[in-house]
Write a structure and sequence with these properties.
Elements: H1 4-29, H2 46-55, E1 78-82, E2 88-93, E3 97-101, E4 104-109, E5 112-120, H3 127-141, E6 146-155, E7 158-168, E8 180-190, E9 193-202, H4 208-217, E10 219-220
Antiparallel strand pairs: 1-2, 2-10, 3-4, 4-5, 5-9, 6-7, 7-8, 8-9
């Protein structure tokens, strides 16, 4: 009986120690969660948050392209002009400014222009003669000259030699700005007289129909 008492006391001490260890371990495992009720407890690192913020940044939409300022409106009205010398007549856009000098008449609206020049010439122009003489002359006198083609076309008044090329405009009187131009040069001839119609507009302008209207309206005076 004297041996059983110490054993019982040791067992009691062991039970107390185990209970203490169990209590200490339970506090570590039961750390409270910071997640809101009903939400996922998955944590997001600061790096992940930065990537998410970058990927959702707004992108500036592409600016729409603007039509070239040289486009002549489809509803543009045209009026007839007869040369002072009585050599020819043609239609030009109503409201365009007109300037005249001996042998030359010009209608213009900003960088758009129609220039009509009259000169004496013994022989009718041809593609070969235009390439041999007129193209080099244009190259020397025209800033930014770039030849595109020399062809022959038919219009109401008859056939004409057509020289198409690129050029730089004269600087604007107000802004000093110069723009690239698309140029069409038509050479009509009859009985020793040549009439050259030069049509210019900012590069990229869609003036196929208006330019054809002008050149088709050209007529020799009786």
């Amino acid at each position: 009986m004297r041996r059983a008492a110490p054993l019982g006391g040791a067992a009691a001490v062991l039970v107390v120690l185990l209970a203490a260890c169990s209590s200490s371990g339970g506090k570590q495992a039961a750390a409270p969660s910071t997640a809101a009720p009903g939400s996922s407890s998955t944590s997001v690192s600061p790096v992940s948050r930065a990537v998410t913020s970058t990927s959702t940044s707004s992108v500036t939409p592409k600016t729409a392209e603007v039509s070239p300022s040289g486009d002549i409106p489809d509803n543009q009205a045209f009026v007839k002009y007869a040369s002072r010398t009585g050599t020819y007549s043609l239609d030009f856009p109503e409201g365009w400014a007109r300037t005249e000098s001996p042998g030359t008449t010009t209608f213009s609206e900003h960088f758009n222009s129609i220039r009509i020049a009259t000169a004496k010439r013994a022989f009718a122009p041809a593609i070969a003669s235009a390439r041999a003489t007129e193209v080099p002359a244009l190259q020397r006198s025209t800033p930014g000259f770039t030849l595109r083609n020399v062809t022959s076309v038919n219009r109401t008044a008859g056939s004409a030699v057509l020289v198409t090329y690129g050029a730089d405009s004269a600087p604007d009187a107000v802004t000093g700005k110069s723009v690239a131009l698309d140029v069409e040069r038509y050479e009509f001839w009859r009985n020793g007289t040549q009439v050259t119609i030069t049509l210019s507009a900012p590069k990229g302008s869609d003036n196929v129909d208006p330019w054809k209207k002008v050149t088709d309206s050209f007529a020799w005076s009786a």
